Amino acid sequence: MNFVAIILTLLGVMAGVQESLPSRYFKSKGHHGRKAENEPPFTEKYFSQIVDHFNFNSMGNGTFNQRYLITEKYWDRKNGPIFFYTGNEGDIWDFALNSGFITELAEQQRALVIFAEHRYYGKSLPFGQESFNIPQVGLLTVEQALADFALLISQLKQELGASNCPVIVFGGSYGGMLSAYMRQRYPNLVAGALAASAPVLSTAGMGDPRQFFRDVTSDFEGYAPECSAAVRGAFQRVQDLAEHQAYDRLQSAFALCKKPSSPGDVRQLKGFLRNAFTLLAMLDYPYSTHFWGDMPAHPVKVACEAMLSGPDLLANLRNTSGIVYNSTGEQTCFDLYSLYVECADPTGCGLGSNSLAWDYQACTEIELCYESNNVTDMFPAMTFTPAERLAYCSKRWGVTPRPGWLQTQYWGDALSTASNIIYSNGDLDPWANGGVRTSLSPSVVAINITDGAHHLDLRGSNDADPASVISARKTEANLIAQWVAMERLRLK
Ligand SMILES: *[C@@H]1O[C@H](CO)[C@@H](O)[C@H](O)[C@H]1NC(C)=O
Ligand SMILES: *[C@@H]1O[C@H](CO)[C@@H](O)[C@H](O)[C@H]1NC(C)=O
Ligand SMILES: *[C@@H]1O[C@H](CO)[C@@H](O)[C@H](O)[C@H]1NC(C)=O
Ligand SMILES: *[C@@H]1O[C@H](CO)[C@@H](O)[C@H](O)[C@H]1NC(C)=O
Ligand SMILES: *[C@@H]1O[C@H](CO)[C@@H](O)[C@H](O)[C@H]1NC(C)=O
Question: 0.90 cut: is pTM over it?
Answer without folding.
Answer: yes
